[in-house]
Structures are given as structure tokens and as C-alpha cells.
């Protein structure tokens, strides 16, 4: 467990996707870089041309309403009134902590290891957060966060167990936040249909599965009262016109979604094969990323970096290394070649 850290003492958290830093670490690495440090689909959704009006005008309320209706249908939410659209779920995290504080929350908890921004943003909002290893420890909190499926290890929580925690939170006036950013690519069951109970908020990401993280779009699914509160905190025009156009189209494209899930599953299997050939132990993941554990992980990070391949390592868990999926056959070959030439001995 970890104690709450005052705002001024909050350390910066290192994330994946920083190619600028990678180039500074490995200035002699070959270009172009292959970024495997994120869990973002390398095969972006092929949206139709964006109309010029989406850039020239402020987003129309009717356009936002159309997206929310489509999102409700896609996520299994009770209605569009349960949907909040935001410029990324990252923007929603501190707002949820502030909302919980306003509702009387005094003790927060997150099931760890997990995406570190949940704890950091809640602490920055003034809510003490404890990182717990056992789900039952969250019952002592009045603000609980669970990532399902989890990042970085792909852990999946049972839907009934999560529902029971939400019920406990409702009885004490608390709030359970379930981050389902990777649910399109895993075996977890969504809790979006249960959000009418009032003590549950489900977060959904657009950029990861649809391979469009730069669009900056995410959703909260919550009771209409909570949804209205979050929308008021976000303010008007929170989501851009281009994002509304792309997401409304993508969320309705079941043919693309089904084909992409199959494609990602096959590619995750291919990645497993490469990692096992390199004698790496796979300890979890989803079809968008794999987590390996090996005492040579820091040396593997350096070796791949010198080959122009960026993977995700973790300061707090130095034996863990996460791999995303290569985008092209050329990238697959470069990764295979780099893993084949990694010969740093074990038991270092």
C-alpha cells in the first residue's frame, strides 16, 4: 500500500510513446523508430473524409447528441443521457476525483498495479489515494478505481465481483470507477449497463482500439445526474468537430470492429511466438499488448533502443517490459531480428 503524497511532492510519471526521449537516449539508433511502448492499435480506423465545416465551426449540440446515442448503443449504456464525451479519459480522471470529494469522499483506493494516472490525478485533486493489491481492500474506501482489463498485465475482474463493489459504494454514498479502456480487445465484461444505479462510473477509450489516440476522445458512462455534473465541469465544446465525425462513424462500423478483433488476436499470437523464442516469460496482456517479465529487462530495453525499437519499461517494476504490436511487415521483421540478436546472459 502507498500513502497519499502532497501535491507538490507528486513525481512526474513516465509513459510510453515518447519518441523524442528515445532519440535522446539512443542518438545512433536507426530511423524510422518503431514505437511498441503503447497499447494503441497500429491499424487506425479508415474514416471517411472530414468535412471542412467540422474544422470551421463550433461543434453543434445535435452532432454531439448523435455521437452520444451511438456510444450508448455501442457500450450497452441505458441511454445517451448516461454518456459523457470528453477530450480523452485523462481529462475525466481529476474531475471524477473532484466530484467524489464534493460528494463527501475522504479515502480513495486503486487496485494496483494499474495505470498510474488514476492515483496521481486523484491526489492532485486533493483526494488521498492508496494503492492496494487485493480487491477486498477497496471496500474500506469511499472512492475506488479498477482498470478492467488491467494495464499493464491484462488482469480481468469478474463482472459480479465488480457489481458487488459498486453496491457497497452505493450503500456508503461512495463511487466506483471502472476503467474499460482495453475492453474491446479482452475477455472482460462491461459494466456500462449497470450505471443507472448511481455509484458506478465506467470509462471508455476511443483512441486505443480504433488506433486514433491523437483524436483525444474518451467517454464516461454514468447515472444521468453524475453525467450532467461531469459535463458541467468539462464546459461546452469539449469534443472537437473532427473527433465527433470520426467517432460517430467508427462506433457504428461493426464489420470493421469484428475484423479488427480477429486481426489483433492473430497478431498477438505472433508476438507471443517471437517473445518466447527470445526466452521471455509472458505474464499477461491483451490483444493490443503483451507483458513479459525477465531479470534482463533493462538490458533488453537498451538493446532494442539501439535498434530503433521503443518498448515500455517500468521504474517501479524493473523486470517488467511491455510490447505493443508492430504496424507493418517490415516492423515485424526488425523486431524479430533485434530479439534474435539479444544474447545478454540470464542471472545477471
Can you characterise this structure?
The two termini are 29 Å apart. The chain contains 11 helices and 13 strands. The strands form 3 sheets. Strands 2-8-7-6-5-3-4 form a 7-stranded mixed β-sheet, sandwiched between helices. A 4-stranded antiparallel β-sheet has the order 9-10-13-12, with helices on one face. Strand 5, helix 6 and strand 6 form a beta-alpha-beta unit. Helix 3 runs parallel beside helix 8, helix 4 crosses helix 5 and helix 4 packs across helix 7. The protein is α/β, with parallel strands linked by helices and 348 residues long. The N terminus is likely disordered.
Notable features of this structure?
alpha/beta; 11 helices; seven-stranded mixed beta sheet; single chain; 37% helix; 17% strand
Shape: globular
Beta-strand content bin: 15-25%
Instruction: Work out the radius of gyration.
Output: 20 Å
Spatially, the strands of the biggest sheet line up as 2-8-7-6-5-3-4
Please mark out the parts with pLDDT under 50 across 5 or more consecutive residues, or reply none: 1-12
Instruction: Return the average pLDDT rounded to an integer.
Output: 94
Cα separation of the termini: 29 Å
Biggest sheet features: 7 strands, mixed
What string gives the helices and strands in order?
HEHHEHEHEEHEEEHHHEEHEEEH
Structural category is: alpha/beta
**What is the tally of helical segments?**
11
Amino acid at each position: 500500500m502507498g500513502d497519499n503524497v502532497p501535491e507538490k511532492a507528486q513525481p512526474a510519471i513516465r509513459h510510453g510513446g515518447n519518441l523524442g526521449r528515445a532519440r535522446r537516449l539512443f542518438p545512433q539508433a536507426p530511423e524510422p523508430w518503431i514505437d511498441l511502448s503503447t497499447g494503441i492499435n497500429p491499424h487506425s480506423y479508415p474514416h471517411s473524409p472530414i468535412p471542412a465545416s467540422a474544422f470551421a465551426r463550433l461543434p453543434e449540440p445535435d452532432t454531439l447528441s448523435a455521437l452520444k446515442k451511438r456510444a450508448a448503443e455501442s457500450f450497452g449504456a441505458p441511454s445517451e443521457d448516461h454518456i459523457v464525451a470528453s477530450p480523452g479519459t485523462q481529462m475525466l480522471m481529476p474531475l471524477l476525483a473532484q466530484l467524489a470529494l464534493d460528494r463527501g469522499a475522504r479515502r480513495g483506493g486503486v487496485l494496483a498495479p494499474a495505470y498510474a494516472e488514476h492515483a496521481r490525478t486523484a491526489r492532485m485533486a486533493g483526494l488521498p489515494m492508496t494503492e492496494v493489491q487485493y480487491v477486498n481492500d477497496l471496500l474500506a474506501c469511499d472512492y475506488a478505481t479498477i482498470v478492467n482489463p488491467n494495464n499493464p498485465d491484462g488482469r480481468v475482474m469478474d463482472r459480479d465481483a465488480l457489481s458487488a463493489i459498486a453496491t457497497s459504494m452505493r450503500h456508503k454514498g461512495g463511487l466506483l470507477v471502472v476503467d474499460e479502456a482495453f475492453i474491446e480487445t479482452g475477455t472482460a465484461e462491461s459494466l456500462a449497463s449497470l450505471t443507472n444505479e448511481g455509484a458506478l462510473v465506467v470509462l471508455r477509450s476511443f483512441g486505443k482500439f480504433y488506433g486514433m489516440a491523437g483524436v483525444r476522445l474518451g467517454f464516461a458512462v454514468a447515472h444521468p445526474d453524475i453525467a450532467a455534473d461531469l459535463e458541467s465541469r468539462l464546459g461546452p465544446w469539449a469534443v472537437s468537430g473532427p473527433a465527433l465525425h470520426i467517432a460517430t462513424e467508427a462506433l457504428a462500423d461493426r464489420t470493421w470492429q469484428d475484423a479488427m478483433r480477429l486481426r489483433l488476436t492473430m497478431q498477438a499470437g505472433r508476438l507471443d511466438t517471437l517473445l518466447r523464442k527470445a526466452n521471455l516469460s509472458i505474464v499477461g496482456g491483451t490483444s493490443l499488448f503483451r507483458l513479459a517479465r525477465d531479470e534482463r529487462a533493462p538490458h533488453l530495453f537498451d538493446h532494442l533502443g539501439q535498434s530503433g525499437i521503443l518498448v515500455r519499461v517500468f521504474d517501479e517494476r524493473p523486470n517488467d517490459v511491455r510490447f505493443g504490436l508492430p504496424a507493418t511487415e517490415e516492423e515485424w521483421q526488425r523486431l524479430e531480428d533485434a530479439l534474435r540478436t539479444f544474447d545478454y546472459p540470464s542471472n545477471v
